[in-house]
Design goal:
The protein is α/β, with parallel strands linked by helices and 295 residues long. It has two domains: 1-123, 3-Layer(aba) Sandwich (Rossmann fold), CATH 3.40.50; 139-295, Rossmann fold, CATH 3.40.50.261. Helices cover 33% and strands 21% of the residues. It contains ten helices and 14 strands. It has a seven-stranded mixed β-sheet, sandwiched between helices. Strands 9-8-11-10-12-13-14 form a seven-stranded mixed β-sheet, sandwiched between helices. Strand 12 (203-208), helix 7 and strand 13 (230-234) form a beta-alpha-beta unit. Residues 248-254 have low confidence and may be disordered.
Length: 295
């Protein structure tokens, strides 16, 4: 990963998903190096105080290697935008757009499986390294620099957990929302490995939600491969059993899995079997972390 303030950052697409406020916040957050935007058909203008180009390759020609692109286009245009970024050798792709067609994501993941390309999202607010760089639309006011990392499927819960940590005096080293669509780029397991190797991270908070089996896979991975303390929180504990979480719950229904597949109870049971502490509510996370870090 290259998540440093001097990393060159590009935005592909200006839509309602990313506002002037978000762009200004990124640019002002410790100098995040947002260099340009790409908006086909509008090249040559200025938007949000950024030069706009028609093609990603034009940005590379003008500014050199781009480290990260933030994709904010119509869901059906995400695949083309991501493939254009890959062709320009951009190795970090953050997809804010929600509702990307699953087959498009399968195509994208197949394209990247033999390359060192990190995809975050779709349906993700991005990444923040508190005190260093903001990539996306996470509200930076909830964060403070420290040594606890957050990896989450949710958007707003990520911010809530960060705020609970901040209020308790536990700063954060990095926070990433991997996205809550049915198929996402990078997994919990990939990020757990990254964070386990991160010298600035001493402990990890994992935030999950109903639907799919990514939390179950993560719990098993933590028990066998992660050395740092991990505390989990699973949202939806009190949601009605028949509730279908439209991001990932529907996917489980479509493929006709077991009725308990992806349920909160299954996830909690898996974490319990792996002896990973699970908070009942976000406010409990700091005390569980402090206890885990002392062990």
């Amino acid at each position: 990963m290259n998540l440093k303030p001097d990393s060159k950052v590009l935005i592909q697409g200006f839509s309602e998903l990313i506002s002037t406020t978000h762009i200004d916040q990124m640019k002002s957050y410790y100098g995040t190096n947002l260099v340009a935007g790409v908006d086909p058909g509008h090249g040559g203008i200025m938007a949000h105080n950024l030069p706009v180009f028609d093609l990603v390759e034009e940005v590379v020609s003008s500014f050199g290697t781009i480290d990260t692109t933030i994709i904010s286009v119509h869901p059906y245009q995400v695949l083309d935008a991501a493939l254009e970024a890959i062709a320009a050798n951009i190795s970090q792709i953050i997809i804010i757009s929600p509702g990307v067609p699953p087959l498009d994501m399968v195509t994208l993941l197949r394209k990247t499986e033999n390359h060192e390309i990190l995809i975050v999202g779709p349906n993700s607010p991005g990444i923040i390294v508190p005190g260093k760089i903001l990539l996306g639309i996470q509200p930076s006011e909830f964060y403070t620099p420290g040594n606890v990392s957050i990896v989450s499927r949710s958007s707003t819960l990520t911010y809530e957990v960060a705020w609970e940590l901040t209020k308790s005096g536990l700063g954060q080293s990095i926070s990433v929302s991997i996205g809550s669509d049915a198929i996402v780029g990078s997994s919990f397991s990939q990020w757990l490995q990254i964070l386990d190797e991160d010298e600035n991270t001493e402990a990890i908070v994992l935030v999950g939600q109903p639907g799919g089996e990514s939390e179950e896979v993560a719990a098993k991975y933590i028990s066998t491969a992660i050395d740092k303390p991990v505390v989990a929180y699973i949202a939806g504990r009190h949601a009605p059993p028949s509730k279908s979480w439209h991001h990932s719950g529907n996917f489980a229904t479509v493929v006709k899995r077991d009725p308990d597949f992806g349920s909160v109870s299954t996830k909690l049971s898996t974490f319990s079997n792996a002896q990973i502490p699970v908070a009942q509510y976000p406010q409990q996370i700091p005390q569980l972390l402090i206890k885990a870090m002392k062990c």
